[in-house]
């Protein structure tokens, strides 16, 4: 199987606790390679645009507020079956339901502050990567 790419965000709850390296190590240990990475302070406009698919959901405002509450690390990850591999190492959205050894079981504070975001499909990965990265920033 050929290498594919996915998108990841290390969320404000994790960056606030200085877990960027620990989370990245878990991703790398799972066979994913970081081919682009940058630490940013997401603007309200970026967060609203990125999460626009959830605009009508009751949690949208809280999600946007959380994502702009501190720096995040946006990353492009590459590896065999990258989307599925990343989702497996992230664990279930609710850390109480996540498997032992996953990022969310290990580091998440709550279902809302669950430390990481990852693309749910290759199509969405392409869209999410393009939202934050120009092609020349991906240097894997």
TrEMBL record:
Keyword Nucleotide-binding applies: yes
This enzyme's EC code(s): 2.7.4.6
Top-rank lineage group of the source organism: Bacteria
Species per Swiss-Prot/TrEMBL record: Aurantiacibacter zhengii
Gene3D superfamilies (alphabetical): Nucleoside diphosphate kinase-like domain
Any GO BP annotation: UTP biosynthetic process
Cofactors, names only: Mg(2+)
Protein name: Nucleoside diphosphate kinase
Enzyme class: transferase
A molecular function (GO) term: metal ion binding
Subunit structure: Homotetramer.
């Amino acid at each position: 199987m050929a290498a594919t790419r996915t998108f990841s965000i290390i969320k404000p709850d994790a960056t606030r606790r200085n877990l960027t390296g620990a989370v990245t190590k878990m991703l790398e240990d799972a066979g994913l390679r970081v081919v682009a990475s940058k630490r940013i302070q997401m603007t309200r406009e970026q967060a609203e645009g990125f999460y626009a698919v959830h605009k009508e959901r009751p949690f949208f405002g809280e999600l946007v507020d959380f994502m702009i509450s501190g720096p995040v690390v946006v990353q492009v990850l590459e590896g065999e079956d990258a989307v599925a591999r990343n989702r497996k190492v992230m664990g279930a959205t609710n850390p109480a339901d996540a498997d032992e050894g996953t990022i969310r079981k290990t580091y998440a504070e709550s279902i809302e502050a669950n430390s990481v975001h990852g693309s749910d499909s290759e199509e969405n990965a392409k869209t999410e990567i393009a939202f934050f990265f120009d092609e020349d920033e991906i240097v894997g």
